[in-house]
User: Fold this.
Amino acid sequence: MSRRRSVRLRITAVATAGTLAVLLGLALLSSRMIGPLLVDSADDELRPALDTAVAAVSAGAEVRPVSPNFRTRVLDTAGAPADGAAAPELTPSDIRTLKAGVPVLRLSDSPPARWLGTVATAPDGAQRLVVVGTGLAGYDAARGAALRWLITAAVIAAAATALATWSAVRSAMRPVGRLRAAAARLGAGKRLPLPESRELRALAAAMNDLLARRDEAADRLRRFTGDAAHELRSPVASIRVQAEVAVAHPDPELAQEVLADVARESQRLSALVDGLLTLARSDAGELPAASAVDLSVAAADAAVRCAVADGPAIRVHAPPGSCWVYAAPSEVDLVLDNLLRNAVRHARARVVLTVLTAGRTARVVVDDDGHGIAEEHRAKVFDRFYRVQDDRARSSGGTGLGLALVAEVVRRRGGAVRVGESPEGGARFQVTWRTASV
Ligand code: ADP
Assistant:
């Protein structure tokens, strides 16, 4: 519930409550300090009067009141009047305190009274308790009035804080409203205006970055969908045309040829769909379970799988023993098959597959002695549907997805793939994987 309340309301409430609490605390503290201040000022006036009275008692002279506001009394040490007047309003405990030279504040009197006292020795050697007292007129009223005034001041100050905070937050939030309105009517490909304030500027810039990334991803997806549709259309169209020709000319010899063509196109279609599916799964974050895979064994198996009768020879160099990498077995096969099939397709006479390990990485190098890949195509061959020579790839059943798949499955396991030139002048593909401990 509280989460839905506006930021303005929350900030104002917190600021107001904070101000009110602090000022009320200060009001209470200040009103408590009024009492001691009044008592201190009474003490300042009582002390000289006490000194005068003590001097008179010590000298055996008559004790006269210094001021009509003060009561000056001479008592014996038990608190009984020694000056002939009525007993003062002091309890035995007050007498004991005054005898110890400690002042007494009698809040129960009306008005509250302050007494100072000390013991003096009369000329006849008798010990006398000399006390001087005064009524603190207005003591309670001053404290009450101070508290009332201070509380009123605290409430007014808190109300002023609420008003100031409310309007300050409202004006601070105005650019947020403008940003929201701009975002609501933002057209495709457009960016948010950058507000003046530093924080909102950073927010708008971050949102613009996000929009740019989104646009780029949407563009990529649009291109990919278009390319995929285009790639799927040609084998489907080819199968359809061949089938229509076969239906129009029911010749058994032609039918055989047409069926072979249809089978070839279907194979390409199925490879394309498999590739698209793998990429879509990977894009969606799906990752097959990884385990330790022996790269040396996988390389030897792939060489057997990819060898073509009358095609280039495939030689495998692997270190003695096993070379474990951390990946899914299907991923390792996909990488090796794609690199080897490409190499076999483009090599003149020889393909060399080398497996190497160094520290925590294992490397697979596939060299061929073909025409290689020109510098300007090297960065792009890993893009989806990128082909160096369109017709050649098409006629050989390529989908334009092979190297994109290789790059994707290697990258998601923290590996890397790059292309360069082999010692024979052909292409050299290098894949690195993290090694696995078994
Ligand atoms: P395809 O399945 O169409 O071959 P790939 O993604 O596997 O698609 O390859 C992308 C491009 O790189 C293709 O046009 C292909 O001709 C080129 N290529 C891949 N491997 C080699 C190689 N060993 N030598 C020369 N060109 C290669």
